[in-house]
Sequence to fold (301 residues):
Amino acid sequence: MKKYAVIDIGTNSTRLLIASVEEDRIIHREKHLITTRMGQGVDENKIINQETILRNVEALKEFKELSESKGVDGFIVFGTSALRDAKNASEFIDLAKKDLGLTVDILDGQTEARYAFLGVSEQYKGEPIIIMDVGGGSTELICAAKGRILNSISFDMGAVRMTERFIKNDPPIDRELRDISHMVQETLRAANKMEESFTIIGVGGTATTLSQIVQEMEEYTPEKIHNSEVFLEDIDKMIKKFSMLKDEQRKKILGLNPQRSDIITAGAIIVSEVLKRYKKESFKTSDYDNLEGAIFNFLKK
Fold:
């Protein structure tokens, strides 16, 4: 049996999966998350500021030390949208290598989509699905059936990016919410055709947070999140509620991580528009995502 640490440096948060692997199966896993906002200001400036770089290196250090204390045999470390966009991403990558000895790979949108597919498909073997991964900086949609990807696309629209670009008031005003909806609609309209009959599977922080809120969960419980169903009607009610509250009030919503309170409105709008685009009344939530997908990708090599 081998044990691996997978670290995903996202636009909003840095996540760690420690997985025990036997042959080609994950037999035990634990996950950890630190909100690090690698993408802060990147959409506008294409630069990661020094404070953000140091904050993210510190999170990597914490996760490396935790992983080593658990006796991992190796690390898989990757970054996504914010590191793709930032002109100075190499500063962070060089520092992670120099100070921590960790090699950070930057995934392109298609590879990020593939990792999500590999993670989810192990749980929904062969089923016709559309995987919806709404992240901080980007959204991936992956159409899959019979264990293979039929079509995938990555959009530069995520919860952090849309919040920074459009929301300037607290609480947000109607025009700001409409602007987000309009941009998402226009982006999806230009997307490659997906099968509308397929089940939508939501992965990532926005999808799992919406499930947490619906279930009024005080603490994240993977067993309750995985395969839970979230309905469009409830999402639209949540958007209305979020938009009526100031950020400090949203932080008190049961099931909502306070560090996600400022971006949940934009994230929920993206999810709502995806469901409407594909004429769906709900999506199912997967606790398996690109972290597990990175493990399966490694094992297939």
Remarks:
- The domain at 2-106 is CATH 3.30.420.40 (Nucleotidyltransferase; domain 5).
